[in-house]
Amino acid sequence: MKPRTLTLAIATLLAAMSLTVNPSTFAATPDDKSASEVAVKIDNFSFSPATITVPVGTTVRWTNRDDIPHTVVSDDKAFKSKVLDTDEQFTYTFTKPGTYSYFCSVHPKMTAKIVVQ
Amino acid sequence: MKKNEKSATSDQLLHDHNHDGIDRRGFLKCMAWAGTGAFCVIKGGVLNSYSLSGFPLGGHGHKGDLSFVQISDSHMGFDKAANPDVVGTFKAAIEKINALPVAPAFILHTGDISHLSKPAEFDTVDQLLKTASAKDIFFVPGEHDVLGDDGKSYLERYGKGAQGGGWYSFDKNGVHFVGLVNVMNLKAGGLGSLGKDQLEWLEKDVKHLSKSTPIVVFAHIPLWSVYPEWGWGTDDSAQALSYLKPFGSVTVLNGHIHQTMQKVEGNITFHTAFSTAFPQPKPGQAPSPGPMKVPADQLRTLLGVTDVNYVRGQHALAVIDSNLT
User: Which residues of B80-106 are buried (b: 16+ CB within 10 A; e: fewer)?
Assistant: First the structure.
């Protein structure tokens, strides 16, 4: 390729990259709230992990992998999902620190906890 | 029901009597013959078993005798591997009921009528029950019937004439029936719950009955502690049972655990029913109490209905489970 064409090609490539790439595509920094999501699995009549500790601003996503419907209800009514059948999900974003105990209102022996710091 | 090879005759069992004339161990042993079409009646302290086809009530019943059926846990809407056809097995259960030699006076459904509290699920059950030989159906809700709206749609459908969260009582042929609700307002980490209002109502409801009135209590979650780790029990059932202890004959019919189990405590006989939808494991024999997959040809041996017969003047009700084969 002629040098001038090569320069043009590189310039075009860089321009294209600058349109498609933004800083948050790279690994999120700890205080980058938009990429912070944590998963909790519901299966075999239990929440796992049963206890998690997350920073303020985290979104928790529950997914029901059990073959029975469950709900996600906090003890203090801070959050309450509709009934989740198999593969259905519920999300909640924790904006305030604290300890959030929650349970399945259909099978109340299923209990778990989220610590928000 | 399996057909008995022999022709219908009665096999008399003579057991040593307790001073009160009731042989509970013999009665439990007799109830364990359930599924073979056997039938137990206590008459004057002597335990008689009859094959269903020879039961003397058919056509020769005495006025005051009562026969009804309990079904439970139809979970209409469930469609996972443990049973992809809960409509088919519910229909088979109704066929069982319709084939009984004595048509039941009514049916008790001890809850988890639907799987997800959806209107279409309740509709399907109501439609299918129209083909049953008994036209009166009495319901109590399971936890699957009160999802999402704290039981509003359940109560609109089945709660007419009921108190508070859907509890009620009625009398048939001298037997007092009490439908209790123990699946609402459940607390984190807890079991089934009756609640203060319902307990107060129950105390008043039975207070003035003569102590010889047979009582049948039906509720979804077991009213005795079957297996608390799996939520198979009711936190405040002891108080309810204290109101029933003075009575000479109390039968408690429950569902929720999708298997038959019985227990006798003084004058109270507890019994849980099969589901018509899917079986669940025995206590502690699986990581959780969820639907239990079995080979297709075994499914119907683990689903069923319960026939209950009261012979006027007798002490205990005869409770017979039949599977769907």
Answer: bebbeebbebbebbbebbeebebebbb
Chain A residues whose CB is inside 8 A of the B231 CB are 107-109
For chain B, domains (ranges, CATH) are 1-55 (no CATH), 64-323 (3.60.21.10)
Residue at A86 is within a domain:
yes
- In sequence order, the 6+-apart residues with CB closer than 8 A to the CB of B80 are A67, A86, B291
Instruction: Using CB atoms, pick whichever of B80, B116, B288 lies closest to residue A83.
Output: B116
ipTM: 0.80
Residue A81 lies in a domain: yes
**Residue A21, domain member (yes or no):** no
- Tell which residue, A45, A46, A64, has the closest CA to residue A113: A46
Question: What 3-state DSSP class applies to A104?
Answer: coil
Please tell me which residue of chain B has the smallest CA distance to A86: B80
Residue in this structure with the two tokens 């003397």, named with its chain if needed: B56
- pLDDT tens sequence across B18-40: 444 344 555 454 444 433 333 44
Chain A hits for B288, Cβ within 8 Å: 44-46, 66
pTM here is: 0.81
Number of domains in chain A: 1
